[in-house]
Amino acid sequence: MPEPAFQDYYPENVSHCYGCGSLNALGLRIRTRWEGDESVTRFTPRPEHTAIPGFVYGGLLASLVDCHSTGTAAAAMYRQEGRAMDTLPAYRFVTASLHVDYLAPTPLGVELEVRGRVKRIEGRKVVVEATVSALGKVTARGEVVAAQMREGFGQV
Amino acid sequence: MPEPAFQDYYPENVSHCYGCGSLNALGLRIRTRWEGDESVTRFTPRPEHTAIPGFVYGGLLASLVDCHSTGTAAAAMYRQEGRAMDTLPAYRFVTASLHVDYLAPTPLGVELEVRGRVKRIEGRKVVVEATVSALGKVTARGEVVAAQMREGFGQV
């Protein structure tokens, strides 16, 4: 059985996200794991995730960087505290800002690899750098400032 | 009949984009028009575009800002040249970089308004600022550097 992903530990109320929620049947349902000090998500875009025919839509790449990075932020916070991800209180992060530089067209039809590194942790904020690669070449580079979700967020 | 949108003038080969392509049946198919000096896209996210239940997924907001801004860049270039969008050569822009600041949770279930302004045109690059509003409140602010697509892009 494969090692659980960060997203497997998300509480039910934060498992509906279009990008990473295991309960969103129409979403991307990305899964992220540590590989040493880097977090890794592998995802194959769907045919409709087209920009120009044959190339991946930039908004999809931004979405991958976004959820990959908020997941990495949560996992990094557990790591910093020496806690397993199935212990309470649960950490969950939202995106404060997202930046993506598109370096080269990303081919559609192959598995993409998103790799993240924690740049710094500042109180309740975690800054994550990420790259997106296709066929071994980095095609996009992103940075996300993830903020720990406050209690009661989304309880309207 | 409503005024045509920028996207109605896109050549067929760039009408497959997940965000703005009229030929992408599964995509967002956003439509953008000038209102004075601002470009405006109105879009109601689908139920699956969830972050936390009741709120819009940040990756979707990034996607709206992205395609809204590349469309605005193209329209701005025609305007600068005093040309109608149905004249040749056709302008089409790709995203060089995308930045989004998430200012407040964006409620799901209402129409969003994306408003863009051209910040500057530098040769083949157009910098577009955009806001996303829900119920009259700005919830996200973005900036896109759009680059004029080179001849032959996507012809592999």
Automatic annotation (TrEMBL), chains A, B:
Determine if NAD is one of this entry's keywords.
Answer: no
Compartment annotation:
Cell projection, Ruffle membrane; Cytoplasm; Membrane
Which positions are tagged coiled coil? none
Q: What is its main location?
A: membrane
GO MF: thiolester hydrolase activity
Q: Name one GO cellular component term.
A: membrane
Its BP terms in the Gene Ontology are:
fatty acid metabolic process
Identify the EC number(s): 3.1.2.2
List UniProt keywords, sorted A-Z. Apoptosis, Cell membrane, Cell projection, Cytoplasm, Fatty acid metabolism, Hydrolase, Lipid metabolism, Membrane, Transit peptide
User: What PANTHER family does the entry give?
Assistant: ACYL-COENZYME A THIOESTERASE THEM4 (PTHR12418:SF19)
Family recorded in the similarity comment: Belongs to the THEM4/THEM5 thioesterase family.
What is the protein named? Acyl-coenzyme A thioesterase THEM4
